[in-house]
Design goal:
It holds the Pfam family FMN_red. This is Flavodoxin family protein. Keywords: Flavoprotein, FMN. The protein is α/β, with parallel strands linked by helices. It has one domain: Rossmann fold (3-Layer(aba) Sandwich). Helices cover about 30% and strands about 15% of the residues. It is built from six helices and five strands. The chain has a five-stranded parallel β-sheet, sandwiched between helices. Strand 1, helix 1 (about 25-35) and strand 2 (about 45-50) form a beta-alpha-beta unit. Helix 1 (about 25-35) packs across helix 6. The radius of gyration is 17 Å and the shape is globular. The chain starts with 12 loop residues before the first strand and ends in a 20-residue tail after the last helix. The model is unreliable at about 195-205 (pLDDT under 50). The protein binds flavin mononucleotide. The site of flavin mononucleotide (FMN) has 19 residues, from helix 1 and strand 4.
Amino acid sequence: MTQSAPADPAQRRFLFLLGSTRREGNSELLARRAAAHLPAGAEQRWLRLADLPVPTFVDQRHDGGHPEPTGNLRTLLDATLDATDLVVVSPLYWYSVTTGVKQYLDHWSGWLRLPEADFKRRMAGRTMWAVTAMADRDPARAEPLAGTLRISADYLAMRWGGVLLGNGSRPGDVLTDTDALRRAETFFTADDAPEAARPAPAWATV
Ligand SMILES: Cc1cc2nc3c(=O)[nH]c(=O)nc-3n(C[C@H](O)[C@H](O)[C@H](O)COP(=O)(O)O)c2cc1C
């Protein structure tokens, strides 16, 4: 059966994956504002990808398969599987996610092939969100980032919560983006996250 997001907010567990290369930058500040308005009772966990370096991803799909994840990779896999809501907090770097976030996503390819992880079936029905800071004032410039995450979520039959965008260059700038701060207040509770764009495929229903 497809796993869906728990209806009871107290059963929701939000994992915030911080993808900036600097601490307390704009994307993190905006995410913390949004997290102050999580559904009542929801748990939150924060992991900074820069504190959890992982091996450079090597495609071993057709070369004996990927080894069992250990160390930081295991921490990230377990945290991902434990979350009902995955929040990718990434500044816009060259119109997409940061290298750290991309590296994390690349490792999903290995996790998808770990029989014991059952990654594809277990991620189905969970929700992915994004929080992004960018120097540009044109939200359309963030479309490649949004598309990368939204379509990746769709690939796993996850729900897509949307992107919370904020403007800023120097750390702290985003705190002057009053529109973004207002959107942050209802970002996680607006409850309009659409179902994944396509029906759950067969592998998610066995
Ligand atoms: C390597 C790099 C690439 C960037 N690329 C973009 C970009 O494509 N578009 C943009 O609007 N801002 C870009 N920026 C600016 C950052 O998105 C902006 O400074 C943001 O506030 C940084 O977020 P942070 O404080 O959470 O790290 C880039 C910054 C860096 C360091």
